[in-house]
Amino acid sequence: MNRPRLALAALSVALLLVLAVSVGSAGALGAPLSPLADCQKHQGTLTHTYSAAQLERALRSMSPSVREYTTCNGTLQDQLDKVLGTAGTPVGNLTTGSGSGGGSGTVILVIVLVLVVLGGAGTAAVAWRRNRGDGSAA
Q: How many CB atoms are located within 10 Å of the residue 15 CB?
């Protein structure tokens, strides 16, 4: 393998490692838990303050098993009632809705996947362009 190919391969691997580390650390470095994750992690109690939109999204995205076998449904609903100032008043059925439930983590993941695919396609194009003339693998 000649030097330019080796340099290109090393650069591609380094770029992929940097992207993987940055995505992995973005979630671990102080990103707040979702209300549902907070409730599950702390056995039915919330340790942070959440907006009404965050609480509603957590209630909509809750799986049936979590809804049935944990106290998180009631905890999140009670907190939502407090935030809205409607404690004791039915708010409606928050289990239905057309919200996507995706957060910023989803957007980051999609961007990283697109960059990885583009990086791989670029590397493949350069390798194909260099090898198409002689047909031999060096």
A: 14
Name which residue leads in pLDDT, 14 or 125.
125
Radius of gyration in angstroms for the set of CA atoms belonging to the chain, rounded to a whole number: 24
Q: Answer for the pair 55, 97: CB distance below 8 angstroms, yes or no.
A: no
What's the mean per-residue pLDDT of the chain? 75
- Mean pLDDT, range 83-111, rounded to an integer: 61
Handedness of CA 88, 91, 94, 96 (dihedral sign): positive
Q: Which residues, 6+ apart, have CB-to-CB distance to 34 below 8 Å?
A: 54, 57, 58, 103
Residue 4 has pLDDT above 90, yes or no: no
User: What is the reported pTM?
Assistant: 0.42
CA pair distance 126, 119, nearest whole angstrom: 11
Closest CA to 48 of 34, 62, 59, 66: 34
Give buried/exposed letters for 111-132 (b at 16+ CB in 10 A, else e): ebeeeeeeeeeebeeeeeeeee
